[in-house]
Amino acid sequence: MKPARRNRLLLILLMIAGVATAASFALKAFNENLMYFFSTTEVTEGKVPQGAKFRLGGMVVKGSIERPDNGMMVRFVLTDYKNRVTVEYTGILPDLFREGQGIVANGRLNDHGVFIADEVLAKHDENYMPPEVADSLKNPEEQP
Amino acid sequence: MSFVPAPISRFFHRMASPPHFYCLTNKLLPWLTVIFILLLGYGLYAGLYLAPTDYQQGDSYRIIYVHVPAAWMSLFIYVVMATAGAIGLIWRIKLADIMVICSAPIGASFTFIALVTGSLWGKPMWGTWWVWDARLTSELILLFLYLGIISLYGAIEDKRSASRAVSILALVGVVNIPIIHYSVEWWNTLHQGPTVTKIDKPSIHIDMLIPLLVMAIAFKFYHLIALLQAAKVELLKREQNSQWVKTMLESET
After folding, report:
1. Could you give the CA distance from residue B244 to residue B189 in angstroms, rounded to a whole number?
2. Do B192 and A126 touch (CB under 8 A)?
3. pLDDT in tens, B180-197
4. Which residues of A touch B133 (CB under 8 A)?
5. In this structure, is residue B67 part of a structural domain?
6. Fewer CB atoms inside 10 Å of the end CB: C or N, chain B?
7. Which residue of A has its CA nearest to B1?
């Protein structure tokens, strides 16, 4: 390779390495802000913003969905398989909302440690299969 | 470059020569178009009709057959564009410069398709059109990178320095590509994790996977067709005063 070309190649590699380093430092610094939601463990450990709105993600615990006053208000429990948080939400739930499903709720904690959600989004998983296959895979012991 | 075998290096030298590239492109294009139409026809039929419905999402998941190949292409084209940019900067090959600027609108279109179809998918499934999670935001930045490259090229009068400037911009933006790909693993996102690139455990049923891969290959062929067409036009525009264009036009008329 001619020296001029080699120099240009080195310059380009150096530029990419520099940009990559800068980007990784920036992403590391903003790591907390890039998390779209907090886990239920972070809520029980008190690592979430107090009195402010934040997003909470987790799995809906099987058999925890109830409508206490038979109205629009729905109460359910979220878990990350370590800690649980009770969520209350008034409104229309997305189609994919069901027991054992991952969801993200936006809202704030009240004084009793109950998460009052203004918005509930369903998080669908990365698995795609026909219903028959899903039925045959279902293991009754493997429940949150 | 003694470590590259002579026939390969000769092939690249021939490909980099504009008249040879022009003739080869003209010969290839009809074949590429036929393959593209066959793959697209089969992919759409198999994906929208033959593939089974999903256990969770029903028929709505079928948008995957446009959304996922488009999103893959948006990343793939960016890598191709940045590589061409590096080649153009280092070896000063005219054709590489042309490839950079011809890739940008195609990549921008695929990114736009991926964002729009993702949004249409998000409303019924997640319950929202758009969220500012890491995956969606980094893909939006990719669209802005493409648009930035197109506008920067248009803003500089001298096309040789314009090519150099957009190549550098494209290379700087490469840092976004791994961020998009790994965003769903590094951070909590509403967007689900990777399905197909998970090697240890395939998480898509084989009857759903095959049409997806066929569509991905069809999109690759479309990219090739669109890129070669655009490159041909750009090449004629830049070389309009050169001898080979004049001879070729005279022989065609």
Report:
1. 54
2. yes
3. 998 888 888 888 877 776
4. 36
5. yes
6. C
7. A1
